[in-house]
């Protein structure tokens, strides 16, 4: 149990580091002077010392929503597959529970955007609802498909089973599910080509529009929630689609897992540098591809057994 709690705390602590690493990697790829990979911690500290100003048009929701956005994501951290062999893990949580908790966090974020009574907040919330409606069914299908291949619907147990006996005969279904989940990782975390996390242009922003009126401690909490959400998706991808390293001792296994997270962050940076932001009404085409690949994974598994 101690090792389990230490792992969760360490993953939460490195969450801002991953997002800062993505920014630094993108700047290197664009031949610009990179920022420090510790910039996320500096921004968090700076926001904590800033004055918290709340719009007079907003209600008590703005006061409570940041904590309600963060809380479901912290709960999901306890449901992730184990990083170290022999570590405690929750074995009965399935795809519906994890997707539901992430969707609950997104719901409170949309509520926060609407409560600001600004045009930008309402626009960002409506766009987020539009994207989430397509992401959630694909995510349930993808995790469900991988869980079936692992022989257990519990996400934690599925990660352990995949690490112990990888289903090589189901490689085609596994590959389809991996493509689907990576698209969802980009979409749910507001990355290019779905959203641009580094702009405040009205025609492109989704996530930034909902938090445009926040500052101080509340903005620090929302930014922390964003980094933790990325760690959740990256951890699920590393545990379910890169299931190796669990057989080593605790320090080596955790080091391998961290390397996998940074590898995923590097791939995200490469995709963002080489991809243009999609128009809003082109996004369903991309998320439709994720749903199609999730269905292909299930059909290939059941019909062809491949």
Secondary structure elements and pairings:
Layout: H1 2-29, H2 39-48, H3 61-77, H4 95-115, H5 119-150, H6 155-164, H7 171-188, H8 207-210, H9 216-241, H10 250-273, H11 283-304
Helix pairs in contact: 1-9, 1-10, 2-9, 3-4, 3-9, 4-5, 5-6, 5-7, 5-11, 7-9, 7-11, 9-10
Structural overview:
This protein has 11 helices and no strands. The protein has 306 residues and is mostly helical. It has one domain. Helix 9 (216-241) crosses helix 10. The longest helix has 32 residues, at 119-150. It is globular and about 60 Å long. It starts with a helix and ends with a helix.
Brief write-up:
The chain is an all-alpha fold. The chain contains eleven helices and no strands. The chain has helices spanning 2-29, 39-48, 61-77, 95-115, 119-150, 155-164, 171-188, 207-210, 216-241, 250-273, 283-304.
